[in-house]
């Protein structure tokens, strides 16, 4: 049974130690960073930089606390993510979201280079075969994975597994392009895009939200580039008239996430990764979307563990006990207390990613909560 350390988002006293930054400091002391990282050791602090318009990322103040804890033991941390748009533009997005050297007290690095194609092909498993792990994450000896817990268009739930599965893998590889990068997971088990012209109102949101410019319109007819499309599903999600359908094998996709996360973890020695899940601003969509919706669940707190399966299971269990927030998509969908909020929103069997991760030997779903 693995230990999962937890600090509630609530505060009962008007003092720093009872604030969330203060509690994070206490969590970092409780788990003992010196038990995982060594003086002079380079440590990647993996997070998500967000998008222009999507601002509900792990806040810089929390990243700074992680960096400072590593600096205190003599390690050499840097904050990193993989490229999702042009590298220089992505660094500017990070800066707009408050993530820069000045705010986090460490260099901010693109894990797969300015062009998003610096990666190492690693043997994965029965679904993915091989996948392009970002070169910096592949080469660095240690890592702290800071994940923003939220909903997700494909995975239903996004936490540490999704952060590594998608964010630890390059978008492209120099030889085989996006089909052996993170796009390969989106492509798994997914069919052809279907357009219902009669329902379409030609709002062009599908075209504008596509990260690969795979959709265009000519003479009021949808033009879809099958080869360019990696089936991320943003177009389907953005369509307000249900004129777009993208069939998917959800079970196979969830399994591919666990497989990819395990592949990224395989490049590290045992006990060289610590996971921190931030259960704050729990919005219905990923931080890679071009906007952030209001949270569907109230802030719950911070979880920390060396076991990726335990911390994900604990996070999911807490979400299952949460109530939907008024004024959110949860209220719009008429979700009630006691219902699985993220399942009701996305209709994705998200628990499968944790079950598969346990089957692959990445950790245990049995855990002990230690609250500070």
Would you kindly provide a written description of the structure presented here, covering whatever features stand out?
The chain is α/β, with parallel strands linked by helices. The radius of gyration is 20 Å and the shape is globular. The two termini are 19 Å apart. It is built from 14 helices and 16 strands. Strand 5 (119-123) and strand 6 form a beta hairpin. It folds into two domains: 2-184 and 249-371, Rossmann fold (3-Layer(aba) Sandwich); 191-245, Alpha-Beta Plaits (2-Layer Sandwich), CATH 3.30.70.20. Helix 6 (160-167) crosses helix 10. Helices cover 31% and strands 20% of the residues. The strands form five sheets. An eight-stranded mixed beta sheet has the order 4-3-2-7-14-15-1-16, sandwiched between helices. The chain has a two-stranded antiparallel ribbon with strand order 5-6.
Overview features:
372 residues; alpha/beta; Rossmann fold; Alpha-Beta Plaits; eight-stranded mixed sheet; two-stranded antiparallel sheet; 31% helix; 20% strand
Biggest beta sheet attributes? 8 strands, mixed
Secondary-structure content class: alpha/beta
Strand tally, please? 16
The overall pLDDT average reads 93
How are the SSEs ordered, and which strands pair?
Elements: E1 2-8, H1 20-31, E2 42-46, H2 60-72, E3 76-81, H3 87-96, H4 101-104, E4 108-110, E5 119-123, E6 130-134, H5 135-139, E7 142-148, E8 150-152, E9 156-158, H6 160-167, H7 183-187, E10 194-195, H8 205-209, E11 215-218, E12 221-224, H9 234-238, E13 244-245, H10 250-265, E14 273-279, E15 301-305, H11 308-320, H12 329-332, H13 341-346, H14 351-359, E16 367-371
Helix pairs in contact: 1-2, 6-10, 10-14, 11-14
């Amino acid at each position: 049974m693995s230990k999962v350390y937890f600090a509630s988002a609530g505060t009962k006293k008007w003092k720093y130690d009872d604030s969330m930054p203060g509690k994070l400091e206490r969590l970092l002391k409780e788990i003992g960073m010196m038990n995982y990282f060594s003086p002079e050791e380079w440590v990647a602090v993996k997070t998500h930089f967000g998008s222009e318009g999507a601002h509900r990322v792990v806040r810089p103040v929390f990243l700074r606390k992680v960096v400072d804890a590593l600096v205190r033991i003599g390690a050499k941390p840097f904050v990193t993510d993989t490229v999702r748009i042009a590298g220089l533009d992505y660094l500017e997005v990070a800066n707009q979201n408050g993530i820069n050297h000045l705010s986090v007290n460490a260099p901010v690095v693109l894990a797969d280079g300015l062009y998003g194609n610096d990666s190492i092909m690693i043997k994965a498993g029965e679904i993915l075969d091989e996948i392009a792990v970002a070169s910096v994450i592949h080469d660095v000896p240690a890592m702290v994975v800071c994940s923003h817990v939220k909903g997700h268009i494909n995975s239903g739930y996004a936490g540490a597994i999704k952060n590594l599965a998608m964010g630890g893998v390059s978008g492209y590889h120099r030889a085989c392009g996006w089909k052996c990068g993170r796009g390969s997971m989106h492509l798994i088990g997914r069919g052809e895009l279907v357009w219902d012209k009669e329902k379409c109102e030609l709002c062009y949101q599908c075209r504008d939200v596509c990260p690969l410019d795979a959709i265009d319109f000519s003479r009021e007819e949808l033009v879809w580039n099958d080869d360019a499309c990696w089936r991320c599903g943003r177009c389907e999600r953005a369509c307000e008239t249900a004129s777009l359908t993208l069939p998917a094998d959800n079970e196979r996709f969830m399994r591919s996430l666990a497989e990819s996360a395990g592949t990224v973890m395989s490049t590290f020695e045992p006990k060289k990764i610590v996971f921190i899940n931030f259960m704050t601003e729990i919005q219905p969509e990923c931080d890679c979307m071009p906007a952030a919706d209001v949270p569907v669940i109230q802030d719950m707190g911070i979880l920390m563990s060396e076991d990726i399966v335990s911390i994900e299971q604990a996070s999911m269990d807490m979400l299952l006990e949460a109530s939907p927030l008024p004024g959110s998509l949860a209220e719009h969908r008429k979700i009630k207390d006691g219902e699985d909020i993220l399942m009701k929103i996305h209709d994705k069997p998200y628990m499968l990613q944790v079950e598969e991760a346990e089957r692959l030997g990445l950790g245990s779903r049995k855990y002990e909560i230690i609250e500070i």
